[in-house]
Amino acid sequence: MATLETTDPNQRPPLIGGEEEGQGPRRRDFLNIAAVSFAGVGAAAVVIPLVNQMNPSADVLALASIEVDISKIELGSGIKVSWRKQPVFVRNLTPKEIADADAVPLASLRDPETLEQRTKPGHKNWLITMAVCTHLGCVPLGITPRENRGPYGGYFCPCHGSQYDTAARIRGGPAPKNLVVPEYSFKSATTVQIG
Amino acid sequence: MSFPWAEHYAPKNPFMRWMDEKLPLPRLVYNAVGAGYPVPRNLNYFWNFGVLAGAALVIQILTGVILAMHYAANGLVAFDSVEHIMRDVNSGWLIRYAHMNGASFFFIVVYLHIFRGLYYGSYKAPREMVWLLGVVIFLLMMATAFMGYVLPWGQMSYWGAQVITGFFSAIPVVGEPVRQWLLGGFAPDNAALNRFFSLHYLLPFVIAAVIVLHIWSLHIPGSNNPTGVEVKGPQDTLPFHPYYTAKDGFGLGVFLICYSLLLFFAPNALGHPDNYIAANPLSTPAHIVPEWYFWPFYAILRAFTFDFLWVPAKLWGVVAMFSAIALLFFLPWIDRSPIRSARYRPMYRIAFWVLVADVLLLGFIGKSPAVEPYVRIGQFAAAYYFAHFLIIIPLIAWAEKPLPLPNSITESVLGEGSDDAALGHPAA
Amino acid sequence: MLRFFAPFIAPVVGALFVLALGCAFFSHRDPTALQPADKYHREPNEVHYSFEGPLGRYDRQQLQRGFQVYKEVCSACHSMRLVAFRDLEEIGFTKPEVKAIAKNWATETPSINPDTGEPATRKPIPSDFIPGPYANETAARAANNNALPPDMSLLAKAREGGPAYIESLVTGYEDVPASLKKEFPDFQVPTGLHFNPYFANLNIAMPPPLTSDGQVTYSDGTVATRKQMATDVSAFLMWAAEPKLENRHRTGIAVVLYLLIATGLVFAAYRNIWAGKKH
Asked: C97 and C189, same structural domain?
């Protein structure tokens, strides 16, 4: 009977590496390494679309701007509107609330910003912010005077006790930042476009 | 696991040693699909399809889990949610087409796997359990594929659900109540769509579990081989890894090329245009057909147009269609020939190829409209299908004079080169 | 006893099936008469599009022309509910153009009157899906002699023959051929239907949509023959049905090239590993 192969029948050729007693990998083993690595690169590339599919889809990204009619908002009160599936506060500040906000020394703030910086010129009484607490994303209370506005008269987040002042700046509690001011503009004296 | 000369797992470093003591998973993998599993050295490319079927299942589960993140199983929005995936979800079109064509490829490789088993007698003792579990997997695949096809809620989805659940109404007395129970209504609607979605998500994991059993039962006798002669000693085998991992890796590459060509350049070639029309319970498409992998069985269903022995044609059709698969469960005992491989069974070899032609013919008939001459040809082809498994195979087993078997795999490999052509690749 | 009978169970069951099918095979069947559609139905014309083949790309100019035909002709009856105005950026319209198209669309998007809560409509914006001409299926049927103009979003994929079928259909209206009348004296086009050999049963409810050359005026100077309009609108409908075709082709070329190299390498590794092993 002829022999099957020149070496021991169950002696496997090394798949990767194949260093034998201080010798470098043999030339032929590069082929195996190359094949496995090249296949590995492909497998890694496949992961990209499988992960990326969880990002917001085109229709979500396209959710456009909204227009808000502010003519019916009473002084000292406000409304909640939905923009990109998130609530937005539109609040009509009283002169006292504006004065309170202006009286606060900037240096004492956790996230220093003036009310001017957070409103549009000529519309200092219109405070438009995301209604999303910068701590962990709850909707704070206080958009209408009926709700608890917290010790600083702005907003109060019931989840973890963050307190915002009348410029929606963070004053107490765990939240790190002021309520975010979204991109918006006045289309007319009574119409605001958000986004 | 199986042969005394199998290589033994030896952990390479302290961590693997620790792991081996606490949870010997690496050892299990090593013995199942690693160097610890000795495999006949003469397997040809037809032995790639088991691994490829596994790969197809992985592709289906992976893409399916992702699709479920975006799909909505509600009659009002199901169709639109699939189009949302196709149009707006990042790479959604890729994942959806991959899943859609992945089902076809799953069936292609599984059919090749089954026919390989038929040709080389892999269903015979001592591998009957491997075969039985395989038929169970096949049935589960069919159920899963059918329910998956309902989910896009197009016209073919809807009418497929209507027709397939209609099978059950053929059962005397309890048929109609059973159908209503399956659908959760009088016609397919939200209730049916939701339960099909739930089960379509569940069954692939059941399939995966049965595959574990399938492989487990395979490892007890070890793999069959093209000679059908059992392994006699270490010279007959090679370790699975790296020999067959490399060969399967190459097979996987070829599989992925074919799959990609279809997926990227003709993704709807195997589908039906009507499924891009949203389901309409008030209007049936002119010509309804199932997906291609069901065509042969659909042809058998439709072949029965004649009430016979006081049994209505409808019931005959349904019984015959289920019997066409169920008879595979009995195959290890129907075929009483002790010789496995068709290489050494001249009569069986002819019958095998005639069966292949017959199944292809049934497929063509299943795809064609139910008019003459297709109906009559279908009746002939269906009759031959049953005759093959239930009459011809026992007859051949009794009448055939097999060719002389080689004494061992090694002898066949070193033989006068007579078999190398049949092996499908040149002698090394 | 059972031992003796066991080998006969399978053949007996098999014989039963063969017998049942044999009876069916030899059973009498009435000959079916030839129908006009069997003989006079025509397969779609050969139409060549830029998006065919593995390297195929859409022709943006053609898609824009096709969109114009859809907007000015088809959209009067056919909705396209799965395509949003924003998608039109993909066929080469700029953001302001898309905004203008949405704003000037013939039908408005359903909405709710913010003051009263009553159903209302508003001007569409780019993120809206294209509003259809009818409020619902009943309205569509009522306006069209009980025929439902199909939604066009997926039409090119939902018809055997694809865009070429649509091209053939819209240009395929003709008088009933004399030979047909002679062969089937009873054949008549029902009232309200139109003879079209590309339609499966030869009689279609849709009146000829493209009636004359120059029905639309293309801004790019292309002469709007009926054939040209039909080709353009069918190409546009293919885009509407398969907007990711170009991504698919591009990705496909890269993936197949990669796989060819990877498979070649793995094959070499396989031969390398098996070298010296007879099998």
From this structure: no
Pair (A48, A107) in one structural domain:
no
Task: For residue B238, give the 3-state DSSP assignment.
Answer: strand
Residue A74 and residue A143 in one domain:
yes
Q: How far is CA C200 from CA B187, C37, C162, in A?
A: 28, 7, 14
Higher confidence at residue C262 or residue B427?
C262
Give ipTM to 2 decimals: 0.93
Q: What is the pTM of this model?
A: 0.90
Closest partner residue to B239 among A1, A12, A32, by Cβ? A12
Helix (H, G, I), strand (E, B) or coil at A86: strand
Q: Looking at chain A, which runs of residues are DSSP E strands?
A: 66-69, 78-83, 86-92, 126-130, 153-156, 163-165, 170-172, 184-188, 191-194
Q: What is the CATH number of the domain that holds A129?
A: 2.102.10.10
Q: Within this chain, do residues C158 and C67 fall inside the same structural domain, yes or no?
A: yes
Same domain, A88 and A47: no
Tokens found for residue C66: 């096709």
Set of chain B residues whose Cβ sits within 8 Å of the Cβ of A58: 87-90
Confidence of residue B422 (pLDDT cuts 50, 70, 90): very low
Instruction: Check whether residue A93 and residue A163 sit in a common domain.
Output: yes
Beta carbons within 10 angstroms of residue C267's beta carbon: 18
| Residue among B254, B274, B327 whose CB faces C263 most closely | B254
User: CA of A54: how far to CAs of A47, A50, B66, C196, C244, in Å?
Assistant: 12, 8, 9, 47, 18
User: C215 and C91, same structural domain?
Assistant: no
Residue B264 to chain C, least CA–CA distance (Å): 5
The pLDDT averaged over each successive group of 10 residues in chain C (279 residues) is 82 91 87 85 94 94 97 95 96 94 94 88 92 93 92 96 96 92 88 92 93 92 94 97 96 97 95 84
Tokens 């010509």 map to which residue? Answer: B287
Q: Which domain holds residue A130?
A: 60-194
Closest chain B residue to A49 measured between Cα atoms?
B91
Amino acid of residue B145: A
pLDDT at B417: 47
**Inter-chain residue contact B84 with A57, CB threshold 8 Å:** yes
Q: What percent of chain B has pLDDT over 90?
A: 85
Overall number of domains in chain A = 2
| Catalytic-labelled residue, pool A160, A161, A176, A177 | A160
- Cis omega before residue C177 (within 30°)? no
Nearest-angstrom CA–CA distance, A149 and A140:
9
Kindly indicate whether the domain formed by B290-408 is annotated with CATH number 1.10.287. Answer: yes
Q: What is the dihedral sign for C-alpha B198, B204, B209, B213?
A: positive
* A90 shares a domain with A50: no
CATH class (in words) of the domain with range B37-230+239-288:
mainly alpha
Domain count, chain C: 2
Answer whether residue C20 is part of any domain.
Answer: no
Beta strands in C143-231 (DSSP E): 194-195, 203-204
Q: What is the pLDDT of residues B254-297, one digit of tens each?
A: 999 999 999 999 999 999 999 999 999 988 988 889 999 999 99
Q: Looking at the annotation, which residues of B are catalytic? A: 219, 223, 247-248, 291
Residue that is last in its domain, among A11, A32, A55: A55
pLDDT, residue C82, reads: 96
Distance of residue C136 Cα from the nearest chain A Cα, in angstroms? 23
Domain co-membership, A108 together with A178 = yes
**3-state class percentages of chain C: helix first, strand second, coil last, to nearest 5:** 45, 5, 50
Structure tokens, B44: 């040809």
**Residues of chain C neighbouring B274 (CB-CB closer than 8 A):** 158
CB B383 within 8 A of CB C22: yes
Chain A residues close to C125, C-beta within 8 Å: 64
Across the A:C interface, residue pairs with CB atoms under 8 Å apart total 50
d(CA C106, CA C71): 9
CATH assignment at residue C197: 1.10.760.10
Confidence of residue A28 (pLDDT cuts 50, 70, 90): low
Annotated catalytic, A135? Answer: no
